[in-house]
Amino acid sequence: MFEKLTKSIYIDGEWRAVNEQQTDTVYNPATLEPITKVANGGKKEAEEAIKAAAKAFPPWSEMPGRKRSHILYKASELMTEDAERLGRILTSEQGKPLKEAIGEVKGAAAFLLWYAEEAARAYGEWLPSSAQSKRMLVIPKPVGVVGAITPWNFPSSMITRKLGPALAAGCTVVLKPSEETPLSAVEIIKVFEKAGMPKGVVNMVTGDAQQIGNAMLTNKEVRLITFTGSTAVGKYLMRESSEHVKKLSLELGGHAPSIVFKDADIDKAAKLVLASKFRNSGQTCICTNRLFVHESIADKFTETLKEKVGKMKVGSGMEDDTELGPLINKAASEKVHSHMEDAVEKGAKVVSGGGYWEGNLNGHFYNPTILSNIDDDMKIMNEETFGPIIPIQTFHDENEVIQKANDTDYGLAAYIFTENTNQAIRASEKLDYGIVGINDVFPATPEAPFGGIKQSGIGKEGGHHGMAEFLEEKYVSIGIG
Ligand code: ADP
């Protein structure tokens, strides 16, 4: 599917490699076989990309929104038509089951469609003045050059969630995708190219994260950094961007609680908890990390979960019936295993699964696992696991469980399962999270504002809120008379 060397740097409308030697290998995480090599760019390429984006900013931002929207429509269409092939590329570099990958690509295209529509709708305001001799306008202006840094867990949708609104707003972009999954990013840039994006509006540099990030931080032209990734890197970007007072949009870690109340529909809730936990093998920032089940239904719920988890198929994402693909790399699987060992050492009981999957593939697979007898001091209850383990704790009353669910520095997503409307509303209001799902574990959609509070991040992706991140309000005061 790929040449030995894939040109993965795109600056001012030109594809480049750095040179034959300066490369990174992309591996298939299911087999650990190399797929291709991509360019390892650094400071020099990042600076050039920023320069190209700065040059392209005036014409792009001055273009009527409706014209920008035509290009985004076209890009969305091209991506949707090619979803099957793009899904295969995604699975080959990231590992998730092909069905999930194709779904992600279609979802990524849906973000472009949404922002194609929003591009023409950046409304300003005419303010009623308190003085008869004045008129006041508020005009939305694109912030300028955007640096976008994306992770490997959703290699396609994380890009369009950022680039869609940025481009719609009239910003130009330098993208740095994850070193683990540059190939989906290359394909998205090709889609933009085919859709007729003017040169310099979208640029991409793969390679040294520190150097590329540093160029974005130190160059005054970059006015906003949009980042999805670890809380540690997010904090670093926040600290370093203070020098030029850059705007930031950060989507960081999560530690989502799922609360199953006694009025839940057990079978439905179990299915949803599984979907939330095991999608992408648990490598999702909004996936359930802690499961609280009301004590009166805990045995039945655990049995139901166990039965379903026992049937889950682990394997290569390319096989039709696979439900759990590999983890992204060795460090990821070791972290998952350390959480499991820590829990077991401290008294947890393995209800199902446990340990590395020993199948016929070389990748870093982990068995879907359920643990019970969970204490608050276990690592799994305090850190993001990012893998396929469900720790089950029981609870007695609503206030107690809400307090536990909120007892974390994270605040991205939380889930409630109940058929009791009063309880659902009460609990959703008390949970300190940017997103609450009530009998729903798939809250990410182009029309809604996705984002965390507390140390899970700043800003929103999705909806008109997502485009507002890339706009600044200019106030024009007019004296007349
Ligand atoms: P994860 O642990 O999920 O890989 P990271 O925060 O390390 O999360 O990575 C998310 C993205 O941030 C990736 O594209 C990665 O290359 C990038 N990144 C990592 N370190 C830095 C840095 N110092 N400056 C800029 N980007 C970085």
Which term fits the overall shape? Answer: globular
What is the annotated CATH architecture of the largest domain?
A: 3-Layer(aba) Sandwich
In terms of DSSP E residues, the strand content is 15-25%
The helix content, as a percent range, equals 25-40%
Total domains, how many?
2
Distinct ligands:
adenosine-5'-diphosphate
Mean pLDDT: 97
CATH class division of the largest domain: Alpha Beta
Any overview of this molecule?
By secondary structure, the chain is an alpha/beta fold. The protein folds into 2 domains: 5-252 and 455-477, Aldehyde Dehydrogenase, Chain A, domain 1 (3-Layer(aba) Sandwich), CATH 3.40.605; 256-444, Aldehyde Dehydrogenase, Chain A, domain 2. 38% of the residues lie in helices and 21% in strands. It contains 14 helices and 21 strands. It has helices spanning 43-62, 65-81, 83-94, 98-118, 157-169, 182-194, 209-218, 231-240, 266-278, 298-310, 330-345, 398-406, 421-430, 463-468; strands spanning 5-6, 9-11, 14-16, 23-27, 34-39, 125-127, 134-142, 145-149, 172-176, 202-204, 222-228, 247-251, 256-260, 288-294, 349-352, 369-372, 389-395, 413-417, 435-438, 457-458, 471-479. Strands 15-16-17-14-13-18-19 form a 7-stranded mixed sheet, with helices on both faces. It starts with a strand and ends with a strand. The model has no long low-confidence stretch (mean pLDDT 97). Bound molecules: adenosine-5'-diphosphate. Adenosine-5'-diphosphate binds at residues 149-151, 176, 178-179, 209-210, 213, 229-230, 233, 236.
